[in-house]
Amino acid sequence: MSTEQARTAPDERRWQALGVCLAAGFISLLDTSIVNVALPSLERGLGASEATQAWVVSGYALTFGLALVPAGRLGDMRGRRQAFLFGLALFTVASAACGFAPGTGWLVVFRLIQGAAAGIVAPQTSGLIQQMFQSSERAKAFGVLGTVIGVSTATGPLAGGLLIDAAGTDDGWRWVFFVNLPIGVAAFAAGLRLLPRFPATGKHEEFDLFGVFLLGAGVLALMLPLVQEQQWTGREKWALMPLAVVLLGAFWAWERRQGRLGRAPLVDLALFSLRSFTLGALISLSYFAGFTTVFFLYALYLQNGVGYSALASGLTVLPFAAASAVGAALGGRLVVRFGRKLVVIGLAGVALGVLGVVAAVELVPGRNVGWASALPLLVGGIGSGLTVSPNTTLTLTRVPVHRAGAAGGVLQTGQRVGSAAGIAVVSAVYFAHLANHGRADTALQLGLLAVAGIILVALVLAVADLRERQVRPEPEKAAEPVGRGWEEGGAVEGVRPGP
């Protein structure tokens, strides 16, 4: 199918193809949180040590983050349909291998492969949305994507709790991985039939292997001490941070050199000349540093501090998940009209919800805290939905379609780094207070106040962007086009350069 045919294809087929992308995105994002509640079952059924449990959780996030940008660029060059189907097949096979793992070492290896496969799938989804949808339809599609991001992350603990409750603690952890198989197989079969065959834009471009090495090494040095913060004792691990800065600086210099020589870079640095992309990526990084941390901290408190079961702990986040779905659907429709204002409102709602949970823990401590937190989580969920999908739309709206995969990879790499950094910082606050004072209620409150502070950073960035747009609107086209097709940003119709 040609590009022109794809643009005039019936709406039903485009939306069906989007459903395939979202199904794959759902299971890959579900696996970032569903495993958390399965760790006691993993310890009992497989005899997994604390170090193994940590790698099962953090190894997935690590390889997920490492694969995003190279996979996005490869999809841009060789075709997103092929990259998506390969990543989905690999993810499904790796999920089966995790479920059948005979020992802890094999489980960690298969989990690393599963994370890399998820990193291959994720940027193709945003790239395919850029290709399949135009104008206000694109905003609606990103709205649905935002719903999937919010719901999959929030419902992971609930899904894990249900599976473990049904299968038992000895083998329940295996079904946390097996649940991906029917969805993965069905999505792959539907993808073969429904995903459009867009022509690859960079068949004759050379893949920037040295850029991949520099970026991969830099992201690894940045994320490794963050995801292993609790397991690696001592301060030596933080020596990797200056190395990460050096490697990422070298990557930036290399990419600039690639551009000057007229070669295809891994990441087109001209993307960062777009204020909408740069500010949106920073907002996304900051927001995910707080957003994903809430579920980690709250589940930890409910199960270890209050004595909730895995299932009961998962049920408490249902208000957030449901409200996030509603908020994202609304955000996809309203972003065309309100632009960045919607993100500001959403972030304020999330901050208010987090502070509401702090108040609920103070006023209704003990077993009833789950009920007392329902309303604040509902408010936070609506705010989250109004944040994720509109910010994604606004961040990618001016990105050229032929760079959409790499841009989506950069955006989501920031989300993975933000999540890892947020969990490292907030869990350090939680465990430090718990070790020194032994009060889980206060430890949770201090951790959530740290989360609220991180969310406020994202809110300040959104307000600053909004005010600058009012004073100095972003031009319709990039001032200095870099690379073929830079002018083909495909901005969302109705999202003007102003607020």
The count of β-strands is 0
Strand content: under 5%
Number of helices: 19
CATH topology type: Growth Hormone, Chain: A
If you had to describe this structure to a student in words, what would you say it looks like?
This protein is mostly helical and 499 residues long. It has one domain (3-471): MFS general substrate transporter like domains (Growth Hormone, Chain: A, Up-down Bundle), CATH 1.20.1250.20. It is built from 19 helices and no strands. The chain has helices at 3-7, 11-30, 39-46, 50-78, 80-99, 104-132, 135-167, 172-178, 180-194, 209-227, 240-260, 275-306, 310-315, 318-338, 340-363, 369-372, 374-396, 404-437, 440-471. Helix 6 (104-132) packs across helix 18. The longest helix is centred in the last third of the chain and has 34 residues, at 404-437.
What secondary-structure arrangement, pairings included, does this model have?
Layout: H1 3-7, H2 11-30, H3 39-46, H4 50-78, H5 80-99, H6 104-132, H7 135-167, H8 172-178, H9 180-194, H10 209-227, H11 240-260, H12 275-306, H13 310-315, H14 318-338, H15 340-363, H16 369-372, H17 374-396, H18 404-437, H19 440-471
